[in-house]
Amino acid sequence: MLFTWRLCCSPGIAGATWRAGPPGAVRRPCPGRGRLSPMTRVAPKGSPVGPLRDQALAYAGHQVHVMRRREAGTLLAWAGELAGRTVLDVAGGDGYWAGRAVRRGARAVCLDLARGKLEFGRRLHGRPALVEGDALALPFAEGSFDVVMSVCAIEHFDDGPSALAEMARVLRPGGDLVMSADALTRADQWPDLFARHRERYHVKQTYTGDHLVKLLDERGLTVVRQTYMFRSRRAERLYLTLSAKGGRAGWNAAAPLSPIVARSDRRNPDGHGSVVLIHARKRQP
């Protein structure tokens, strides 16, 4: 199977390093400046492609589980109209969520350090461009993207504030940042579960909404809206229990609970929770 990645010669994108490509992957210069050219995919005849196949592969893959769909779906909805816009998913794993942006007409890039996840992402149809790179040193120039997204990634970084600074740097003025993070506002009530969660998923730091608002403001972004998920004490304990003891398989097995948790969130105050979602906009200079 041949995959061709096309990259425009622009100060915004041309610095990218496409390390995760398969043998035969090529870079081709494109006319124009400042725009990412669509990636073309050539599949063999009879190849089973489509949304259902993508979902099956993603759920069998790395980071996607059923309970995360509401979280990522909310972030993508907050990003607004995506047709024709450039989107970067930071620490996006196999590119599944960035692929949702592609299906909405975006020209999307998924960046991750884990080569195994990126290689798995090559199996998805309608996927974004896949880049092996570091969130603390994004290989793109300032103002390269209209939208930057990151789904529960910042808590795993050694230096989350520096990662936010990089996201802000590559976002154009007026562009949208949509992100989520582990908040776990009541984690001190279940220290053993919290410790297992942190060890299992290499969580370096949790972030409340107020903390992120401050960090983003210092980096030139104004928060437009925020919300918590798994708001009640019972829901937050469920989150930690599934995370610490069940892993991805446990989350998928708990899929029937997703609408119950969503209904519970609507009934509880929006000031606590396991995960915080943020939509911020980069201020004009």
UniProtKB/TrEMBL annotation:
Q: Which GO terms describe its molecular function?
A: S-adenosylmethionine-dependent methyltransferase activity
Superkingdom of the source? Answer: Bacteria
The alphabetized UniProt keywords are: Methyltransferase, Transferase
Q: Where is the Methyltransferase type domain?
A: 88-178
Which GO biological process categories is it annotated with?
Answer: methylation
Provide the residue span(s) of the region labelled Disordered: 29-48, 262-285
Question: What's the protein name?
Answer: Type 11 methyltransferase
The organism encoding this protein is: Candidatus Protofrankia californiensis
Task: Please name the taxonomic classification of the source.
Answer: Bacteria, Bacillati, Actinomycetota, Actinomycetes, Frankiales
